[in-house]
């Protein structure tokens, strides 16, 4: 996961357009309007909320529970999202209580309103420990100025002085503005746990690479998979290396997670964090895997000459990267370069604080 990218642009969106061959969209583009809910399977309903930037929306899922509904993901702490939820509770879900708020991962579009929702409904927050602790730590890190380690990371990646100065203007507390205060405590879930929601068994399946311990929910009986951002239909979830754990291997973890999810049944209806519900889980996982491996191969060739992370943007994203996307593009480029380094396919040399990668 990348603290760097979270601070610059809160959206965990992607740069890499991917093929989505082999997928079928169950509802053919029909989606719930703001303030509305849409049934996607017996006992499971869909709410869509706006988020700024190219992602445009986030999906939240309501699962019928004994005494109300369990909510998976909440949207970002923005007036428009809060208004949309109020319309839902005034309208289609009037009188319905949220029994628990389940956060798939710590990103603000997913848990931005978790504290607010828990407060309102006196509901517990349910997350994996890795996601919970990460969220709490970012909220608690209240300094205004960009930490020196982050600046060093940006220099290492090859940012110009102007780019560093421009990013410094937005400071370091962006996350706190779009996340409501989190509850003091939480209820822990972990990989393999079985939860019973409204009499229906759901199994927790975790993944890593986009975030540290991302929870997905599997209901094998009804063929449903609440995927969060672990699998998205049209975009490749951001996989970033950042200054908080600069020796990590997020792309390696991501590829392992893809292999793990391929053990799941192929015919599940996938309910993703962004985009439309789809069938074709394995086709999508294969496409994501192939794409990252192709990018690694291409990068390795490109590293015939020593390159910095910023030099690799054209190879990875096939589009110009502006200041707003610089943090995430850097995190993604670094996760690929780091993977090549770990595989022994690239070597890193540091000159004047700048990391130069060359094919081994
Ligand atoms: Zn997301």
Write a structural description.
- With 360 residues, the protein is an alpha/beta fold.
- The chain is 34% helix and 22% strand.
- It is built from 12 helices and 16 strands.
- The protein has helices at residues 3-8, 79-90, 108-111, 114-121, 129-140, 148-157, 161-169, 174-177, 250-261, 281-302, 313-317, 323-342, and strands at 24-25, 38-41, 44-50, 57-65, 68-72, 98-102, 125-128, 187-189, 194-197, 200-207, 214-219, 224-228, 269-272, 278-279, 346-351, 354-359.
- The chain has a 7-stranded mixed beta sheet with strand order 2-3-4-5-6-7-8. Strands 9-10-11-12-13 form a 5-stranded mixed beta sheet. It has a two-stranded antiparallel ribbon with strand order 1-14.
- Strand 11 (214-219) and strand 12 form a beta hairpin.
- Helix 9 packs antiparallel against helix 10 (281-302).
- The radius of gyration is 20 Å and the shape is globular.
- Residues 1-19 have low confidence and may be disordered.
- Zinc ion binds next to helix 3.
